Protein backbone atom coordinates (compact mmCIF):
# COMPACT_ATOMS: atom_id res chain seq x y z
CA UNK A 1 0.00 0.00 0.00
CA UNK A 2 1.23 3.50 -0.82
CA UNK A 3 0.31 7.02 0.24
CA UNK A 4 0.00 8.18 -3.36
CA UNK A 5 -2.93 10.36 -4.28
CA UNK A 6 -4.60 9.86 -7.66
CA UNK A 7 -3.51 12.25 -10.37
CA UNK A 8 -5.74 14.07 -12.83
CA UNK A 9 -7.24 11.57 -15.32
CA UNK A 10 -6.05 12.07 -18.87
CA UNK A 11 -2.86 13.99 -18.01
CA UNK A 12 -0.70 11.20 -19.38
CA UNK A 13 -3.09 10.19 -22.11
CA UNK A 14 -4.54 7.39 -19.97
CA UNK A 15 -7.64 7.19 -17.82
CA UNK A 16 -6.00 5.30 -14.94
CA UNK A 17 -4.87 7.34 -11.92
CA UNK A 18 -1.16 8.12 -11.80
CA UNK A 19 0.62 6.59 -8.80
CA UNK A 20 4.23 6.19 -7.80
CA UNK A 21 4.00 2.46 -8.51
CA UNK A 22 2.57 2.95 -12.00
CA UNK A 23 5.19 5.55 -12.82
CA UNK A 24 7.94 3.27 -11.57
CA UNK A 25 6.80 0.43 -13.80
CA UNK A 26 6.43 2.69 -16.83
CA UNK A 27 9.90 4.16 -16.28
CA UNK A 28 11.42 0.68 -16.00
CA UNK A 29 9.85 -0.36 -19.31
CA UNK A 30 10.70 2.83 -21.20
CA UNK A 31 13.50 2.36 -23.76
CA UNK A 32 16.86 3.88 -22.84
CA UNK A 33 19.86 4.35 -25.15
CA UNK A 34 18.15 2.35 -27.85
CA UNK A 35 20.75 3.30 -30.46
CA UNK A 36 22.33 2.92 -32.87
CA UNK A 37 24.99 4.94 -31.09
CA UNK A 38 28.14 6.56 -32.48
CA UNK A 39 31.52 5.28 -31.44
CA UNK A 40 34.04 7.21 -29.35
CA UNK A 41 37.76 6.51 -29.15
CA UNK A 42 39.10 8.41 -26.11
CA UNK A 43 42.68 7.78 -27.19
CA UNK A 44 42.04 9.89 -30.30
CA UNK A 45 40.10 12.63 -28.53
CA UNK A 46 43.01 15.04 -28.30
CA UNK A 47 44.77 16.86 -25.44
CA UNK A 48 42.10 19.53 -24.79
CA UNK A 49 38.32 19.33 -24.30
CA UNK A 50 37.22 22.33 -26.37
CA UNK A 51 37.70 20.67 -29.78
CA UNK A 52 36.02 17.49 -28.53
CA UNK A 53 32.97 19.50 -27.50
CA UNK A 54 32.92 21.28 -30.85
CA UNK A 55 33.03 18.00 -32.78
CA UNK A 56 30.30 16.43 -30.66
CA UNK A 57 28.03 19.47 -31.01
CA UNK A 58 28.63 19.68 -34.76
CA UNK A 59 27.78 15.97 -35.09
CA UNK A 60 24.57 16.50 -33.11
CA UNK A 61 23.59 19.40 -35.38
CA UNK A 62 24.46 17.44 -38.52
CA UNK A 63 22.40 14.45 -37.37
CA UNK A 64 19.34 16.51 -36.47
CA UNK A 65 19.46 15.93 -32.73
CA UNK A 66 16.67 18.17 -31.36
CA UNK A 67 17.93 21.34 -29.71
CA UNK A 68 21.50 20.17 -29.01
CA UNK A 69 22.45 23.67 -27.85
CA UNK A 70 20.01 23.40 -24.93
CA UNK A 71 21.82 22.76 -21.64
CA UNK A 72 21.25 22.59 -17.91
CA UNK A 73 22.91 25.27 -15.80
CA UNK A 74 23.47 24.55 -12.11
CA UNK A 75 24.35 27.33 -9.69
CA UNK A 76 24.52 27.82 -5.94
CA UNK A 77 24.12 30.94 -3.87
CA UNK A 78 25.99 32.03 -0.78
CA UNK A 79 23.86 29.64 1.30
CA UNK A 80 25.06 26.68 -0.78
CA UNK A 81 21.59 25.66 -1.96
CA UNK A 82 21.81 24.35 -5.54
CA UNK A 83 19.49 25.44 -8.31
CA UNK A 84 19.27 24.13 -11.87
CA UNK A 85 17.43 25.22 -14.99
CA UNK A 86 17.55 24.68 -18.76
CA UNK A 87 18.69 27.43 -21.11
CA UNK A 88 20.44 28.03 -24.43
CA UNK A 89 24.13 27.96 -25.20
CA UNK A 90 24.88 31.32 -26.82
CA UNK A 91 28.47 30.82 -27.90
CA UNK A 92 31.57 28.65 -27.55
CA UNK A 93 35.23 29.58 -27.18
CA UNK A 94 36.72 26.32 -28.47
CA UNK A 95 40.32 27.11 -27.55
CA UNK A 96 39.50 28.07 -23.95
CA UNK A 97 36.69 25.51 -23.56
CA UNK A 98 34.38 28.32 -22.47
CA UNK A 99 30.63 28.62 -22.86
CA UNK A 100 28.39 31.70 -23.06
CA UNK A 101 24.83 32.03 -21.81
CA UNK A 102 22.56 34.98 -21.10
CA UNK A 103 20.20 35.93 -18.31
CA UNK A 104 18.68 38.78 -16.39
CA UNK A 105 21.08 39.84 -13.62
CA UNK A 106 18.19 40.05 -11.14
CA UNK A 107 17.04 36.46 -11.80
CA UNK A 108 17.84 33.69 -9.36
CA UNK A 109 20.75 32.44 -11.46
CA UNK A 110 22.03 36.00 -11.79
CA UNK A 111 21.89 36.49 -8.04
CA UNK A 112 23.52 33.10 -7.47
CA UNK A 113 26.38 33.96 -9.78
CA UNK A 114 26.86 37.36 -8.15
CA UNK A 115 27.26 35.60 -4.79
CA UNK A 116 29.13 32.52 -6.00
CA UNK A 117 30.59 32.93 -9.52
CA UNK A 118 31.06 29.23 -10.22
CA UNK A 119 28.67 26.94 -12.07
CA UNK A 120 28.21 23.65 -13.91
CA UNK A 121 26.72 22.85 -17.31
CA UNK A 122 25.31 19.59 -18.66
CA UNK A 123 24.24 18.55 -22.15
CA UNK A 124 22.43 15.29 -22.89
CA UNK A 125 21.73 13.96 -26.38
CA UNK A 126 19.82 10.67 -26.04
CA UNK A 127 19.88 9.93 -29.78
CA UNK A 128 23.68 9.73 -29.56
CA UNK A 129 23.83 8.36 -26.02
CA UNK A 130 26.11 11.26 -25.18
CA UNK A 131 26.41 13.46 -22.12
CA UNK A 132 28.82 16.34 -21.53
CA UNK A 133 29.58 17.98 -18.21
CA UNK A 134 31.58 21.17 -17.70
CA UNK A 135 32.23 23.21 -14.58
CA UNK A 136 34.28 26.27 -13.77
CA UNK A 137 34.34 29.94 -12.81
CA UNK A 138 31.89 32.34 -14.43
CA UNK A 139 32.61 35.89 -15.56
CA UNK A 140 30.37 38.66 -16.87
CA UNK A 141 31.12 39.78 -20.41
CA UNK A 142 31.09 43.42 -21.51
CA UNK A 143 27.95 45.41 -22.20
CA UNK A 144 28.58 45.50 -25.96
CA UNK A 145 28.43 41.70 -26.01
CA UNK A 146 25.18 41.75 -24.03
CA UNK A 147 23.75 44.34 -26.39
CA UNK A 148 24.63 42.34 -29.51
CA UNK A 149 23.17 39.20 -27.95
CA UNK A 150 19.88 40.87 -27.11
CA UNK A 151 19.42 42.77 -30.37
CA UNK A 152 20.22 39.64 -32.35
CA UNK A 153 17.17 37.88 -30.93
CA UNK A 154 13.77 37.52 -32.55
CA UNK A 155 11.10 40.05 -31.57
CA UNK A 156 9.15 37.73 -29.21
CA UNK A 157 12.34 36.97 -27.31
CA UNK A 158 13.18 40.66 -27.01
CA UNK A 159 9.65 41.38 -25.80
CA UNK A 160 10.13 38.73 -23.12
CA UNK A 161 13.22 40.61 -21.94
CA UNK A 162 11.05 43.64 -21.13
CA UNK A 163 8.21 41.63 -19.58
CA UNK A 164 8.47 41.74 -15.80
CA UNK A 165 11.46 40.72 -13.69
CA UNK A 166 12.65 37.17 -14.31
CA UNK A 167 12.04 34.87 -11.31
CA UNK A 168 9.96 37.49 -9.46
CA UNK A 169 6.50 36.45 -8.18
CA UNK A 170 3.67 36.80 -10.73
CA UNK A 171 0.13 37.75 -9.70
CA UNK A 172 -1.50 35.78 -12.51
CA UNK A 173 -1.91 35.35 -16.28
CA UNK A 174 -3.69 38.68 -16.68
CA UNK A 175 -0.76 40.57 -15.16
CA UNK A 176 1.61 38.75 -17.50
CA UNK A 177 -0.44 39.53 -20.61
CA UNK A 178 -0.68 43.19 -19.65
CA UNK A 179 3.08 43.40 -19.14
CA UNK A 180 3.66 41.58 -22.40
CA UNK A 181 1.56 44.09 -24.32
CA UNK A 182 3.54 46.94 -22.77
CA UNK A 183 6.82 45.21 -23.66
CA UNK A 184 5.75 44.63 -27.27
CA UNK A 185 4.81 48.30 -27.60
CA UNK A 186 8.12 49.30 -26.02
CA UNK A 187 10.33 47.41 -28.49
CA UNK A 188 8.22 48.70 -31.40
CA UNK A 189 8.83 52.26 -30.24
CA UNK A 190 12.49 51.73 -29.25
CA UNK A 191 13.85 48.75 -31.25
CA UNK A 192 17.47 49.41 -30.20
CA UNK A 193 16.71 49.43 -26.48
CA UNK A 194 18.24 46.72 -24.27
CA UNK A 195 17.13 45.87 -20.72
CA UNK A 196 19.58 47.17 -18.16
CA UNK A 197 19.90 43.79 -16.50
CA UNK A 198 20.47 41.72 -19.65
CA UNK A 199 23.79 39.99 -19.06
CA UNK A 200 25.96 37.53 -20.94
CA UNK A 201 28.00 35.18 -18.79
CA UNK A 202 30.96 33.01 -19.72
CA UNK A 203 31.83 29.78 -17.93
CA UNK A 204 35.50 28.89 -18.51
CA UNK A 205 35.67 25.17 -17.79
CA UNK A 206 38.33 23.93 -15.41
CA UNK A 207 36.96 20.42 -15.79
CA UNK A 208 35.02 18.70 -18.56
CA UNK A 209 33.74 15.19 -18.98
CA UNK A 210 32.53 13.33 -22.06
CA UNK A 211 30.23 10.34 -21.54
CA UNK A 212 29.49 7.96 -24.38
CA UNK A 213 26.97 5.19 -23.92
CA UNK A 214 27.96 1.74 -25.10
CA UNK A 215 26.33 -1.66 -25.51
CA UNK A 216 25.41 -3.62 -22.37
CA UNK A 217 26.39 -0.74 -20.10
CA UNK A 218 29.95 -0.54 -21.40
CA UNK A 219 30.00 3.24 -21.26
CA UNK A 220 33.05 5.45 -21.79
CA UNK A 221 33.84 8.41 -19.55
CA UNK A 222 36.72 10.73 -20.42
CA UNK A 223 37.52 13.54 -18.00
CA UNK A 224 39.71 16.58 -18.59
CA UNK A 225 41.04 18.78 -15.75
CA UNK A 226 42.73 22.11 -16.28
CA UNK A 227 46.38 22.08 -15.20
CA UNK A 228 48.65 24.95 -16.27
CA UNK A 229 51.71 22.73 -15.71
CA UNK A 230 50.49 20.03 -18.10
CA UNK A 231 51.20 20.01 -21.83
CA UNK A 232 48.43 21.97 -23.49
CA UNK A 233 47.13 23.07 -20.09
CA UNK A 234 45.00 19.97 -19.42
CA UNK A 235 45.30 16.53 -17.92
CA UNK A 236 42.99 13.76 -19.06
CA UNK A 237 41.98 10.29 -17.99
CA UNK A 238 39.24 7.66 -18.05
CA UNK A 239 36.70 7.21 -15.27
CA UNK A 240 34.83 4.08 -14.26
CA UNK A 241 31.32 4.25 -15.76
Provide a descriptive summary of the structure in words:
The protein is α+β, with helices and mostly antiparallel strands and 241 residues long. Helices cover 27% and strands 29% of the residues. The chain has helices at residues 20-29, 49-62, 108-115, 143-151, 155-161, 173-189, and strands at 70-76, 82-88, 91-93, 98-104, 118-125, 130-140, 198-204, 207-212, 220-226, 234-239. Strands 1, 2, 3, 4, 5, 6, 7, 8, 9 and 10 form a ten-stranded antiparallel beta sheet that branches. The chain is globular. The two termini are 35 Å apart. Residues 1-9 have low confidence and may be disordered.
Short structural summary:
This protein has 241 residues and is of the alpha+beta class.
- Taken in chain order, the helices and strands follow as HHEEEEHEEHHHEEEE
The class by helix and strand makeup works out as alpha+beta
Characterize the overall form: globular
Main sheet, how many strands, which sense, barrel? Answer: 10 strands, antiparallel
Report the end-to-end length measured between terminal Cα atoms. 35 Å
Helix content: 25-40%
Which CATH first-tier class of the domain at 43-153 and 196-239 would you pick?
Answer: Mainly Beta
Gyration radius, rounded: 21 Å
Mean pLDDT score: 91
Q: Helix tally?
A: 6
Which consecutive residue ranges, at least 5 long each, have pLDDT under 50? 1-9
Would you give the CATH topology of the domain at 43-153 and 196-239? Answer: Pnp Oxidase, Chain A
Query: How does CATH name the architecture of the domain at 43-153 and 196-239?
Result: Roll
Strand content: 25-35%
Fourth-level CATH superfamily of the domain at 43-153 and 196-239: Electron Transport, Fmn-binding Protein, Chain A
Number of strands: 10
Amino acid sequence: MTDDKPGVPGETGQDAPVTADSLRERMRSAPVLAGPLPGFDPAAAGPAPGPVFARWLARALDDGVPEPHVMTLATAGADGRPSARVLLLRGVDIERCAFDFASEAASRKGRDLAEHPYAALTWYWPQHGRQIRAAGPVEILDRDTARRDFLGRREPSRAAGFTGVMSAPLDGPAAYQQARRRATAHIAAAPEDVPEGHTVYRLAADEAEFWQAGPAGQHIRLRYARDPAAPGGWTRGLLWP
